[in-house]
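**User:**
Make up any protein.

**Assistant:**
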Amino acid sequence: MSKIANTPKPPYYAVIFTSVRTDGDNGYAEAAKRVLELARQQPGFLGYEAARQDIGISVSYWESLEAIRAWKAHPEHRKVQEMEAVWYGESRIRVSKVERDY
């Protein structure tokens, strides 16, 4: 199984989450697994990729901005977002439109 998301022909959208973790797990691993499981069930979800070294970068792919907004507002996802100050010393989210994919 490829670790690179198999996305459709553009256009589609990418949500890029860049972060620096704090020390300790503090429930992070379990929550991250659950959030990805939930995201995969959302209408408009297209795929996911992630890498972590000194900083973490995760990218989720979505068919529309509406799908991204719905995911951001998902009740269980909102609860996890409240833990960001515990899990991340620094983080940023960027939303981009993918126009080419090759």
